[in-house]
Here is the input.
Amino acid sequence: MSKSVLLSILCLLACFQLSYAQTVLSGNVRNAATKEVVPAVSVSMKEGPNGDYTNDQGNFRFSTRKALPVTLIFSAVGFESKEVIVGAAGPQRVELSPVSILGREVVVSASRSVQKKIESPVTIERIGTKDIINSPQPSYFNMLQGLKGVDITTSSLTFTTVTTRGFNTSGNTNFTQIVDGMDNQAPGLNFPLGTAIGLTELDVDNLELLSGASSALYGSRGLNGTLVMTGKDPFKYQGLSAQITQGVNHIKKGKANDPIGPSPYYDWAVRWAKKVSDRFAFKINVQYVQAKEWMANDTTNTNSPGGPLTDPNYNGVNMYGSKTSVDINPFLQGALQAQPELAPLIDPLLARGSNYVARSGYAEYGYLSSDAKLLKANLEMRYKITPGLEAIVSGTFGKGNAVYSNDTRYALTNFQLGQYRAELKAANWFLRGYTSQENSGNTIIASPTAQLINEAWKPSYNAATGDGWYPQYTGALLEAMAGGKSYEEAGNIARSFANQGMPDAGSPLFLRLKDSISQLPTSKGGTLFLDKSKLYNVEAQYNLSHLIKFADLIAGLNYRLYRLDSKGTLFPDNDGPIDVAEYSAYAHLTKKVMHDKLSLSAAFRYDKNTLFEKPRITTRVSAVGEVNKESFIRFSYQNAYSFPSNIQSLQSTPIDYNSFASGGSSRLLNGVYQFDRYPAYTLASVTKYQQSNNPADLEKFALSDIKPQSVDAFELGYSSLIAKCVLIDVLGYYSTWKNFIGYVNVANTPGTDDPAAFKDHSTYMSYNIAYNGAEKVNTYGYAASIGLELPYHFQAKVNFSSDFLKNRNNSQVNNFNTPNYKFNIDLGNTGFGNKERYSFSTTFRYRPGYFYQIGFASGMVPASAVIDAQVSYRLLQAHSRIKLGATNITNTYYRTGFGSPAIGGMYYVSFAYNVF
Here is the structure.
């Protein structure tokens, strides 16, 4: 080959290489005010799709084939966007100026598309990363209680239930919680699990809370609101982050009957995210929480005003075992026949009517574990198939202990829940599949387990021997009265005599009995749930807005399968798992008119559940009008619905305790299969009878198949940003509920229609029935909030809300558990002092006293005024922050629900590295 030919080939190769040469663009972004690095800044190229995010050191780096000069666009929440023209290769140093985000927050969940929060068609609240960093709450989930219109029930340190607009209870099945697109409900019981398997503290990008009805966009169970939680993108939020929180609670033993002394609180979290290449990134999250639990310790007597020393039928709210209640008249009559000379003592007692006596119960502390533990782990990998198409695979696992309240207290010990997701996501569409898999672990059902413990160490009555706790009590009672003691004094002496041999809570005998009962399935006479139910979900959504010119249109399909697997302990699935499927289709249409001053939208959703013959069609129509550039008025109508939960829809297996123990225990007996499985049962309402002890007050309970409940909700609201520093939001709503699902206590004596058969508590079984009330129930309320951006980074927020219920069906336990009004006040500063190293925040939450209904008891929740506070100092060179804080800083114990634990102060210090 000649030299000239070789030289020509080399020149061509050089030209070819130059034509594909790439320019590397890199640089560093800092805060113009403090000179700190700014992570998670979006760096995009105006001339093409290339770009990057700054890492935890504020650096960015990406390549492009575009010839210089090019224009880079820098944008980040809390900073002014900036365009920089790059005319030569080499590192760029860019400074961004901080700016207020008041009124500029964007949300997605209100319409399934990006829009400004102030322009949302419905009420929505948002919590971002910066809010979490500056909050005095150690857990981001507890920040929700400070939002406008939000109610919470804290059943235990690791289990908090959230709701809006009134219907508030532990384990609320009418509230939807979505984490990275996955429904966060327990597959078997259908209520959200709070933070038990949610995002870890360091991985929260934002929380968006939709108040009220939201079924048109998110399906069944969205009657009381929807919480959408979004984790951090590992392409955007990179680096190693860690946070260690060490605290102490139960500061003053004995205060508010708190039996636990000062105890440590641990909360450790680690997040590692890395962008391996322009296409691949991953993140790993681990969080562990351990502390001594807040214990429920309400000793109020649910049977009468008397206390344990004055009422033989004493049954404390949080005393377990004393629901076993028997009329001792048959034993008195037996004693009279055996010893006629006792007539002067016995005849006056029999003349009084019934003489109910409850067995002695166990307090929650020492009976249920006080060890609160929670471990969460998450792994997520993302791969960009193309710049506009991303594949996501993730797995999340949670394990721990928690307690929640329903018809009694349930201690979930070593429960496990996993969620696993695979997703393809593009700019205009996504295809997502995931599964949720639960293991109920060792569940202690407080009241019936304690009743069976009592029966195990000494039966209430042994028919074969004629002995038992009640015969011994009756004999000792008469002996003490014969010795001159009053009925009350004799009752206390008799109780002490009959209680001989009763094991102390926590003793070896007690633990052996508790374990033997709680580890025996309910289907075999114990109290153990064997719930390993699963949920499978596939969803696809497409944004057609780029194809349709006259309006913005989003459409989607969803398929969900519940595989219920409780081995007969919750569902009639002894012969194998039961499959329940739901099919859904939805669409959301938005059209702007009047020169974009008025935005009209409509959402439609079709849902079919295989347990119910008729499908449900729900709608939402709304209008948002621009009053001026920063003021908007909104109106919406929403029709929402909720299929009954699986436990309400399907027959639960009755737990067959012995006759005396069954006198006061409620069991679940619900759903469409009830009379097929138990045709001999005659159900009667016992509420009036238990109040009057008159068999004539018994009413036969007519139960029909349970139906989905629905609500028609209207809302009118107004949002305005004034002078760029004052944000106002006001609203009013009115809702009408149909086929409202509530609960009632009923009883049955198999094989008889005779009301007299119910007159003795020992001859019937009591059940907790879910059913549709015939009356339409109305709720209404209003709320307002004001946010202020003050000079020198001071911020203040005030919100007020009020909720009311009318046409209450008093035959139902309806769980409308909220005060008529509540308010919250926040004051803080995000940066002051030298280089703005210091910050602080404080919150004040007030709730007046209100009536609270729950399955096992109802009563007043006392008023509460709670102050939380924190002060922080940043170590700029170490990229770290030290926070000193406290929740309930005055240590004034309060409750968020009747029968729930009393919550005292918790004081902590937190060290956070690379948290932004």
About this structure: The chain is about 10% helix and 45% strand. The domain at 3-96 is CATH 2.60.40.1120 (Immunoglobulin-like). The longest strand covers residues 409-426. The first helix runs from residue 3 to 19.
